[in-house]
From TrEMBL:
TM annotation in the entry: none
Listed name of the protein: Glutamine amidotransferase chain of NAD synthetase
Gene3D superfamilies: Carbon-nitrogen hydrolase
Domain spans labelled CN hydrolase: 7-251
Entries under SUPFAM superfamilies matching the protein: Carbon-nitrogen hydrolase
UniProt cross-references to InterPro entries, sorted A to Z: Aliph_Amidase/BUP (IPR050345), C-N_Hydrolase (IPR003010), C-N_Hydrolase_sf (IPR036526)
One of the GO BP terms on file: putrescine biosynthetic process from arginine
GO molecular function terms noted in the UniProt entry: N-carbamoylputrescine amidase activity; transferase activity
UniProt keywords, alphabetically: Glutamine amidotransferase, Hydrolase, Transferase
PROSITE patterns: CN_HYDROLASE
Pfam families: CN_hydrolase (PF00795)
Amino acid sequence: MTMKNELKVGIAQIAPVLGDVAANLEKHLQYIEAARKEGIELLLFPELSMTGYSLREKTLDVAMPLSADVLDELAAAAGDMAVSFGFVEEASAGEFYNAQGMVKNGQLIHLHRKLNLPNYGGLEEAKWYSKGQGLELCEPFSGWPTHTLICADLWNPALPHLAMLDKPALMLAPVNSAADIVSDEFSNPQGWKTNTDFISMTYGVPLLMANSCALEGNSRFWGGSRIMDAFGNCLAEAGAEEALISAVVKLSDTREARFQLPTIRDADNRLVLDLLKKRL
């Protein structure tokens, strides 16, 4: 299989309809078709893009198993494009996960269950979901191993570091960020800019951050989805409304960036492990 140096990636910044899977499926299908016309090869939707975020008791109404027809329909629509989307997975009766699936060629090729469930400010995910327990790579295209971290996963600094030790060529960051959901003093828009700038530049990794732009009650999700290159430069950025953005990322940039700043090479995992053991 030929390795691709360039990959055209895209973000579908949408405003999901809270609790309406059918309406959100239609929106996903429309953006998948628009992305195909633009030649996008990998398309990222926000966290919980199939359901909306502030579900609470609605979780029971929208949760679905991996065998759900809705997921099959998304997989069929994706074709040879890799499409990553968010949904509530019901792994067993009453066991729910905030999950991000990736489909391609009619199949589910990757699943990430959110690891770090926020339970502060206006966030209470730990009340509704089980914590994910795994962090696994997928490789939707030859030479493009990819990691996914969902929203608050990226605010536990150990998790991006662990993910980057696998040397992914691409990091996907589907999020649901409302401007003042943490506190009046904490700026989510500025915080996400700092977070994504830091990770892409420090580790030499292209990064896609896909946010919602929905209004759910008093929570305004501010959009601002962005595509970063391996040097920490923003290649494309959305505003506050629904949009499809795209850019081309390059393996050659990752090669050069990690040569200039060899963060992964010099991570010294043994030392970190020894220091961590002293604190357990």
